[in-house]
Amino acid sequence: MEALPADPSLRDIRAWPFEEAAKVADRASVKAKGMALFETGYGPSGLPHIGTFGEVARTTWVRRAFERLTGLPSRLVAFSDDMDALRKVPDNVPNPELLRANLGKPVSRIPDPFGTHESYGAHNNARLRTFLEAFGFEFEFASSTDYYSSGRFDEALLRMLAVHEEVRQVILPTLGPDRRATYSPFLPIHPRTGLVMQVPMEEVRPDAGTVVWRDPETGERYETPVTGGHVKAQWKADWALRWYALGVDYEMSGKDLIDSVKLSSQICRVLGGEPPVGFTYELFLDAQGQKISKSKGNGLTIEEWLTYAPPESLSLFMYQQPGRAKRLHFDVIPRATDEYLANVEKLRVAADPANPAWHIHGGALPNGAGSPITFTLLLNLAVAANAETPEMLWGYLRRHAPEATPEASPMLAVLVERASAYYRDMVKPTKRFRPATQPEREALLHLAQLLRENQARIEALPAAERPGAIQDLVYDAGRREPFLQPGKDPSRPGVSRAWFAAIYQVLLGQEEGPRFGGFVALYGIPETVALIEGTLERGADAA
């Protein structure tokens, strides 16, 4: 990407990516290098997930903010810890017995249960790269196995060997008595079994660049070089080693790793490096407010989100308040989608770097961004029309919003497809209609009468004015007891929320929705009149 001129005024923008970027820009190592290195870490014992997307997206936004702020280049390294030992067999892989027979070995040295790559680690690394590339992220992929085996970590490993006891003293206070007696930052790879060995070091030989340890099963003693991929560093030491060796300037991590960040930072300083600028993001919660767990399966997968909404909506969800815990479940999808669309329209009016859409789209809206119709409005149309397929929704759009076409709005085409799927799978099974009370029945019938009487006048208006004119009739129909409430104009009372709740609960089987005038303009006045009268007639028959 072509370098942009520095814009120091962006420090004053109240947006968290610029706040983070300013911290990176002020870092001494960045000033000395004239560039910044951003990193995201990935454990390849499982497949990429929605948290992977969130971490890379958020890091990318900080990276782009840094480049805009400073005019300096940057790199993003997606680092796969594929030399880590496989400790348990994931639930979502074929041939689990193949993995079970190789537990304890580095994932890069375990056969691929999918049968497509030279190792299980290579398979998951390929999935990671494909995953990130599909979202257009710019990154450099790095393999822990490659870095250890090629010698790129050798200098750092020898440095850690030289300060072996100092590194131990950072970790020992956090361990129980048994682990404290055996802890070493080095995990030798057994030369015979290939297992990652968690054993005490009988000797540390910095001059020779080796460690001496004993196989607890056989009692055989080994002297192993710490270089060339013969050992792997333990988790917290490994993180510090990576920061030190690569000169990482920025890395995010979840709230569950706060203590690990502190310890790894201490180790990095022991090695003689400066730990990166960090940002702690909160973890996701499920619909009941419980922490999301892959083993429990109580979360929302990225495939599920993208079945029902465009990726930009997921980006918006990830952008907002990363330092606060958020519930990640199906109900948040429509709101996140419409908030994204609203931010696109604001950005179209003013290029505001505080706008989330500015960051999602790298400072410039692409062609076809935005939609003339909100996701929630499409969902309400699907509810009223029982539209389980995109073709059914397009039928209504062609009649009542002929200017809204896939060619004119590519995003609308995506939203129509996703909205019909969301309605079919998420809304239709949970619709809960209630019968109208007598006052609600009278008000709804009055609304149908007003719509019928004013149809010709409203349809003669320009399309942009019809929703407002219909909304006025919605208010007029609700100006009666028990929906009246005091307004600014004593001669024209206001209408309570109970009236609008009644409209959505009785007619559409849901608690709330967008402005009803916009829905009627899209659904059609005759169709809405038929919806009202048919619903009330069915309710009367049921009573």
From TrEMBL:
Catalytic activity: tRNA(Lys) + L-lysine + ATP = L-lysyl-tRNA(Lys) + AMP + diphosphate
Enzyme Commission number: 6.1.1.6
GO function terms (MF aspect): lysine-tRNA ligase activity
InterPro entries per UniProt: aa-tRNA-synth_I_codon-bd_sub2, aa-tRNA-synth_I_CS, aa_tRNA-synth_I_cd-bd_sf, Lys-tRNA-ligase, Rossmann-like_a/b/a_fold
Span(s) of short sequence motif 'KMSKS' region: 291-295
Record's subcellular location: Cytoplasm
Position of sequence motif 'HIGH' region: 44-52
Amino acids binding ATP: 294
Keywords: Aminoacyl-tRNA synthetase, ATP-binding, Cytoplasm, Ligase, Nucleotide-binding, Protein biosynthesis
Major location (coarse): cytoplasm
SUPFAM superfamilies, per the entry: An anticodon-binding domain of class I aminoacyl-tRNA synthetases, Nucleotidylyl transferase
Alphabetized HAMAP family for the sequence: Lys_tRNA_synth_class1 (MF_00177)
Protein family membership: Belongs to the class-I aminoacyl-tRNA synthetase family.
Annotated protein name in UniProt: Lysine--tRNA ligase
Organism: Pararoseomonas baculiformis
